[in-house]
Specification:
Chain A: Keywords: Germination, Lipoprotein, Membrane, Palmitate, Signal. The complex is a heterotrimer of chains A (373), B (369) and C (521). With 373 residues, chain A is α/β, with parallel strands linked by helices. Chain A has eleven helices and 13 strands. Chain B contains 16 helices and no strands. Classes of the chains: A alpha/beta (373), B mainly alpha (369), C alpha+beta (521).
Amino acid sequence: MKKKKWFLLFVIACLILTACTEYRVLERISLVTLIGYDVEDGDVTATSVVRQINPEFESSIEIHSETAETSKGTRVKTDLQSAKKLMAGQLRVTLFGDDLAKEGIEEAIHTLAMNSEITTSIYLAVVDGKSKTLLEGQYPNIADVGQHIFNLIDHNINQQQMISSTLHEVVRDIYASFRDFALPKVKKSGEYIDISGIALFKDGKMVGSLPASDSFYVLLIRENINDGTLQLVLPGELAESSKNPPNYQPEELPIAIDAIKTKRDLKIINENEIDLSISLDCRLLEIHSSLAISDKKITEKIEKEINKKIESEIERIIKYSQEVNSDIFGFGEHFYAFTRNSKLTEEKWREIYPNLKVNVKIDTEIIRSGVFE
Amino acid sequence: MKKTLSISESELINAPLLFFIINACQIGVGIHGFQRLIYQDAKQDAWISVIISFIFAHFIVFIMIKTLEMFPSNDLYGIHQEVFGKFIGNFFNLIYIFYSSFAFLVVLKNYIEVINVWIFPNLSATFLGASLLMIVIYAFNGGFRVLVGICFFSFICTLWVPSILFIPMEYSEISQLLPLFDNHLKDIIKGAYAMTFTIIGFEIINIVYPYVKEKNKVQRYVHLGLFATLLLYLSIMLISLTYFSGPQLEKTIWATLNLFSIIKFPFIERVEIITICLWMIIILPNLCLFAWSTHRGVIRMVNISSKKFIWIFSTVMLIFILFIKSRSQINHINNIFSHFGFVVVFVYPLFIYLMALIRNSFLKRKRTN
Amino acid sequence: MFKKIQQKILPNEEKPEYNPPKIPVPPLKNDFINELKKIIHSPADLVIRFVTNNITIAFIDGLIETQSLDDNILARFEDTSDETPSTLRERISIPEVNVFDEMIQCIDEMLIGAVLIHINGHPQVVLAKIPSYEKRSLEAPENESQVIGTQVGFNESLNTNITLIRRFITNPNLCNEHFTLGKETRTSVSVLYIHGIVDEKHVNTVRQRIKDLDIVDLIDSAILAELIDDSSSSIFPQTLLTERPDRFCDGLLTGKVGIIVNGSSMGIICPFSFLEFFQSREDQNLRWPIASFIRLLRFAAIIVSIFFTPIYVASLTFHYEVIPQPMLVPLSESRAIVPFPPIIEALFLELVIELLREAGARLPTKVGQTIGIVGGIVIGTAAVQAGITSNILIIIVALGALASFTTPNYMMGNVIRIIRFPIIVLAGFWGYYGIMLAFCFLLIHLLKQSSLGAPYLAPFYPPRLKDWPDSIVRLPLPFISRHSVNSRSRKEIEKSKKKKNTKKQRQNSNLTPENKEKVIE
């Protein structure tokens, strides 16, 4: 019995001795919170925002930039620069420079998806220009560029002002046969960083972009949303129909609405035609004071004008996406899902999509309009 | 050595516990990445394959219990010996022993692989294997009731896990399930066949049966346990199919873990790291009961104390683990195991049922004569 | 699981009984006195008095009631020379008077409060028992205090304690079996149970285990509890030690066996399950939603207490990925100047807390409080400022310590605190994997335990749905079956089965309701 116990102790001791694993003590590693990739003469330049934890400076942000043939190669080089081991487990955002995006980011995304250290919930975005210049820029009001960009993208996505671009969704769309993806675009503008638009991709290559103000429409076409604010300019004639028309005739009437609930509905007419009807329940946020919004007739008129306006905007956006042949709305997938034995292939869809006829129909309903008329 | 089992009153278990045994034995390492295997064949109809495989499993379990009912206080090993005689019976016993220990090895190695890939890339497989085997040995020495207790608590401790799997549904696209039935039935059946690796485990009833107090309730609880597993697998399958796009799913090795990966709580992120560690308590019943099943077979041929057996068994398993290193080897072994498992679990019971029927009618005729 | 108990229950070979040499009582006065002095080594408190020429009395000062000695014994003597022990016995008017003719036996009795009366010329001694010892008055229990409910605790006297119990349970079925344990101390032990409620199996087990004990001394019931435990090597207590008579009676009424040891203010209740250690008597006194909330709180506290520090250590050592972004900066900044890895830091702080607790328990109450404040504030603040620990860890460790004190049972509270240390070490080596290893080990260990052969994790495993309403929650009283299935007697179970059957029969054949069987409460 005693022998057995000693044997057990021996085994346990051996185990403990042989099983020392790599320590990753929080304050003894450098956390990469953001990586920007650029392409330079065929080589990859990686710019990483690294959170350093030092007792003297409490915590500081370092920005490293290295060029190598593979993205892991850049990591090794950056490691050589840094006093502590670099770990990517807290990575939140990956940026791609303009040039790289145009060349194709499929491989970079594949590398990201392969790494078990990185979660699939990180955000991807494209930089207008080089990500290196964006990250190395001086921002007096921003303490931590990495966290700032993450928060910037995160809150806009949560408020449905911007299309969601988590690694998971991008990977899903990149490998899906009938779907292209779009990423938010960020830009350095002076001392600030903006979301400047949406980059449209086709087969992993950036083919075009839309301004940020169009993102609401893109979202509206892509999915059902329940948040997001839209500013519209309606024609000025509307003001005439109000009870006590204003003294002057405004040329245009800007209004702002806030989506409460939208429902997107797709209906296939035939191989080359599809009906897109969107019902939009919204809240009126801003309107000229002279309009009596409690009047049903006026409200209906406003709704009609909104419909018209949104329809034309959406048509414009769809047209643009057809021009660059990037099906970011997932029409192709709808075709595939709702036709039996469609034998639809990726190439075939690429041919069909630019000539697809989309009939847009918007049905707006103003549900609420604040507490003061 | 001995033909019928003598089981003391204190070792018997109540029939409702079978529910937990079946459930705990089925859910193991397969659940981490079964979606991909099935999707390869059945595409978006993979969930139908899941259902079909379970229908088949229910049928097989029914047959299994029918066979066992003919020999009320004997397990499969004893039935072999009774039906085929000692020599051929022992041969079949050997096969089943091999199957059980193979299953043990596969579960252990796959779990170690997951830990190595996701959490500790540098932690040696020897340590992981040895530490898990230590726990198995400790549990094994507690006797059968302790093993069943582990099954029970494995179920209770992981009840919350499926509920958080609904969080990724935020990203799911229902249209990815469509068009329904767009694949050939052949492909769907193929998908069901690919389920083998994930679905097996319920064959433990072959060994547990004599330990159940209320034999008439066995059918009910075993089927209930199977059904619970079906619900779990089906919901995970549906969530995965809508969450991942098809080709993405084909490339995702551990789709279930990827599902966890996107979940964020205000106090914790990267839930998959926690669930992988928690998975230890899910695979523990697998390991324990497969080891126990091997033990039941071995003691019919060799006179060996359970303590000695488990130490020898664990050492052998540990040595095998050292030999399997790369992912491709693991995949290869999983492949072999799933084919072998299909034969042992899904085909063989039909054969033994027929044999038992023939034997019984033969005996009856003899008696009337 | 049951192997061990079976072994214990099986009749073993006769063990050597306590058999002192027999010395007859010398008939002559002087011989008797000499003999007496020789045997008990003439202690200073031995009193020998000559009442008449013939009669000598001897007793130990302080062990007897002097008033009673005067009134009931000395006043009854008549100066007649033909006094014999048997006539004297009849004359003395106290309940317990015996005649013995053997010295050792006499002295044994004298040592627990008897007066020896020797009549010259007779080889017998009359023993009159008038015991009186100084004892503590009944006070509120200190270690198991509760807000609502009776405020009386056991004291060190066996008789008083049994009286207390009889006051709670006025029932002829309350059985009391007496044992004497310990070769040197010869301590009285009482085994109490309620006939008809208790499972005879448990009583037999207790009886057998007490009889099989071969011990030299027995000072406290805690020692007895450890000796009769199923597995005394386990860190978990398997029998309840309580100083509350109401909790004790509650145990008896739910079909458990109680043991009281003379000289100890703690009663033993067994079999006891793991879950019951976290229940308090007070839960029965509170309304069910409140009681349930408090119970859930307690169970949450155990989890916090055992796993919080290890999770902190594991997360900071290995799994930095799981820390959400908002927590990352404060956590890492608080750790930035700490020179040790988290495991050392955590072990150090846990040890400090344990030291404080131990010091507080050993010191007199007034000083103890001061130590708590000094330790908590001074050491805590100083440690953070010196950069030895991070302030977040101090919060976590303090929370863990606080949580462990919510366990109503002191023994179990200790266990909860101690098992943290190995888990912290495992977490420091292998992160969450280590914690999970510890958890599995703990679970299996608990599954292996039993209390008098009853499963330790009942009612969860084996699942006994009937007992669930009174487990981690407390549902309203009608839902709770009074006798937990765990310790219910066979009779009781058969009765309830019969009841069910008769109900069915009644439904079938519409019989007249027979006399209902009442469950003894």
